[in-house]
Design goal:
Rossmann fold; 2 domains; seven-stranded mixed beta sheet; 10 helices; about 35% helix
Length: about 375
């Protein structure tokens, strides 16, 4: 833990709080469900019959999901799991995930691990559970939570809150001119509102509906750190992509060129936001995000990112796979973490600019346990 007080550097280390990763090696490639599925046969598993499991991610290009896919494929043999990897074409492709779910049912799989795209896939998940498959959500808790049997995920509210607490302390009482780069503007996803609202709560800004982005007061006082005035310039969708982050940041800058604090849903969006800020001649804005991938941790080390909330996708996938194999062989089902409605796989704030009162690790420690190497 770091507890040294810090005042913001001139660039405030372009804060990208990227909640992300478990330090386990990840290899292999995963394919896009729109074209084909990858199947990894498990090992001997002690002579037990193999268990069919499908891992369905939102896409196969985001490093977070690639890490999850590759780590699961590498680990499948430990539990004699016959793993099929599938995904949507890109963020927002509900139908790609629905097709993958239907394929899993037809194959006779015992379970599904899924990072649910939106409520649009809920009916397909119900169909799988009605067919006897055990369904575990990874990373993104569905809405409602009981759509699946259990969720293995980062505490996304806490990940956003760590970003906000760090940002408020780093501002050291200065006015906060804030851009919020969310995931979607046409879908409601729990990971989206939990990170956004958690960030605002960490800043000490009152939120409206805790499951809705963009309905808080646009001006007022933040109470985190030393406290100060705030202005929320924009809530823009980035689709969790670098190009989306850049265009979203450009739209925000068109509204107010003096933005000095940027929250982003993930690191790809943060990279795009940074490019837009740099092109606009804004070298002082702080960027915070969630992921904790190796590229993001390296950006912390280089001073591009100020802080990132690190999450652990490999842990989500491997623990989920183990749980399905255990249940298929007559074992007990996993239980939620005490006080939560999901199994918490952990989060740590990575920053080289520690602040008093916010627990964190530095980029060297973060690099040791990052994903996407």
């Amino acid at each position: 833990m770091h507890s040294l007080p810090v005042r913001p550097s001139r660039a405030a280390h372009r804060l990208v709080a990227s909640a992300a990763i478990v330090g386990l090696a990840l290899t292999a490639t995963a394919c896009n469900r729109s074209s084909s599925s990858d199947t990894a046969a498990g090992g001997s598993g002690g002579g037990e019959e193999s268990v069919g499991v499908t891992l369905i991610t939102k896409d196969s290009t985001n490093p977070f999901f690639v890490a999850m896919q590759n780590g699961a494929k590498e680990d499948a043999g430990k539990n004699n799991v016959k793993l099929t990897v599938a995904s949507g074409k890109q963020e927002g492709d509900d139908q790609g995930q629905i097709t993958a779910i239907e394929d899993s049912i037809a194959r006779g799989d015992k379970g599904i691990l899924i990072t649910p795209m939106s409520t649009g896939v809920n009916a397909a998940i119900k169909k799988a559970r009605d067919a006897g498959l055990y369904v575990i959500a990874l990373d993104t808790p569905p809405d409602p939570a009981d759509t699946v049997d259990i969720t293995f995920a980062t505490d996304n509210r806490l990940a956003g809150k760590l970003d906000g607490e760090w940002a408020a302390a780093t501002l050291d009482g200065k006015p906060a001119v804030i851009a919020l780069l969310d995931l979607f503007d046409d879908k409601i996803v729990s990971v989206d509102y939990n990170r956004d609202q958690g960030f605002l709560e960490g800043m000490g800004i009152d939120v409206g509906d805790p499951k809705k982005n963009g309905d808080e007061a646009k001006t007022g006082k933040y109470t985190g750190g030393k406290g100060g005035d705030y202005t929320i310039v924009c809530n823009e969708a980035s689709n969790g992509a670098e190009d989306g982050g850049r265009s979203a940041m450009e739209r925000c800058l068109a509204k107010n060129k003096d933005i000095n604090l940027v929250y982003t849903i993930n690191e790809p969006a943060a990279v795009g936001a940074n490019a837009a800020l740099k092109a606009a001649g804004n070298s002082d804005a702080i960027i915070v995000s969630v992921d904790g991938g190796c590229a993001g941790v390296d950006s912390v080390k280089k001073g591009v990112i100020g802080a990132t909330s690190q999450q652990y996708p490999l842990k989500m996938a491997t623990l989920g796979m183990e749980a399905i194999a255990k249940i298929a062989r007559g074992g007990e089902a996993p239980k939620p973490t005490d006080g939560l409605d999901f199994f918490n796989t952990g989060v740590k704030l990575v920053t080289d600019e520690p602040v008093d009162g916010v627990e964190s690790i530095d980029s060297t420690e973060g690099a040791d346990i990052c994903w996407g190497k």
